[in-house]
Amino acid sequence: MDLDFFELIYNHPLLKKEDYQEIRKAHTKIEFQQGSMLLEIGKIAREFYIIEKGLFRSFLYDYNCNETTTEFYCSNEILIESLSLFQRTSSKENFQAITDAVVWKIEYETFQQLLQTVEGFREWGRTWATSQIFSLKQRSINVLTINATDRYLDLIKERPQIIKQSPLKYIASYLGITDTSLSRIRKEIATS
Amino acid sequence: MDLDFFELIYNHPLLKKEDYQEIRKAHTKIEFQQGSMLLEIGKIAREFYIIEKGLFRSFLYDYNCNETTTEFYCSNEILIESLSLFQRTSSKENFQAITDAVVWKIEYETFQQLLQTVEGFREWGRTWATSQIFSLKQRSINVLTINATDRYLDLIKERPQIIKQSPLKYIASYLGITDTSLSRIRKEIATS
DNA sequence: AAGTACACTTGCCATATGACAAGAAATGCT
DNA sequence: AGCATTTCTTGTCATATGGCAAGTGTACTT
């Protein structure tokens, strides 16, 4: 059932059946082909996306002009450039479909309206924003204090979809290492 | 002048002289001794702090029980554990005065009230939250893509106060390296 | 002034990761 | 099936950083 998908994403005890009807109506389905861009650096994000199927990544170019994958977005997750969307500034990152994908989008204005009119949605939004900030903090700490092998093992455990669906080079740049090193780490893990 | 300090911190074009009067009245001055704790892991943050003088750091223990300095807070900056303050959850980090310090605090409830009643303050808050998220993202990217020497050089350039006021070991753990390595990096820089 | 604690530096060697290049495997296209 | 492209692996060597221990410097206490 489609409704189950929305209940899963916007999960909050204050949200009722009729709220989900309203939320659902606010969304439009779009499909993306593997490799296509959902948002590019310099453009302004106007929509909030939830992923039904497929895998996306965000990436940018570091000071050495190397592509760095900053995040992965799996099915049943939310994909946005929060700074661009909420601050109406140009995006600092590219967002790309790694596989063919099905997503549901909601316009920024509609999203804001839901936040204002649906209490449970507002509360959901607050919780979600908090978890976003928590993840961002956690990521820096992990990178600083955990070695690449353990970060990779964590990724396997926590987000196996990524391992299955993403080319090794994107995973490597997400972990902050080269694809050569990641290949060796995999070998090491396999033989131990 | 004290007012100048508040105008500097809560800088926003929508805020007027009388707004700053109100903002100022909402704050109370406190002093901290070098080494004393402003907030500890497990406690709930009830206040928002702005630093007039001195240096603070936040830190936690990683999965190896090593102390990791997650952030520094210099004079004219804001110091809070946003997750704890806004979500009423227990703090995930310790906050400690590295030097003797003078800060101004504002109670959470008073802060919320200002957000609701003063439009310029609300707009300032939105901008500030955005810049926080931006910094968090930037930090992960820097750690992933820039080597320790360049991160240290950046720190010297961007936040010289920290270099002057913090012991080397905190700077090292902030950079994600040992104090031994940082000592060598300094030597390397000095002789080149 | 001696003692103590803390901050910083240095030496030695180990380990993790990178750079580059070649080869192998998988995938897509016609 | 055959070719081209991309993805992944492996070898060799270089560099960055860590772990440990000893040594030096500095500041505070008494």
From TrEMBL, chains A, B:
Identify this protein by name: CRP-like cAMP-binding protein
List the SUPFAM superfamilies hit by this protein, alphabetically: cAMP-binding domain-like
Top-level taxon of origin: Bacteria
Which organism is this entry from? Pedobacter cryoconitis
Where in the numbering of this chain does the Cyclic nucleotide-binding domain appear?
A: 15-115
Any one Pfam family match given in the protein's UniProt record, by short name: cNMP_binding
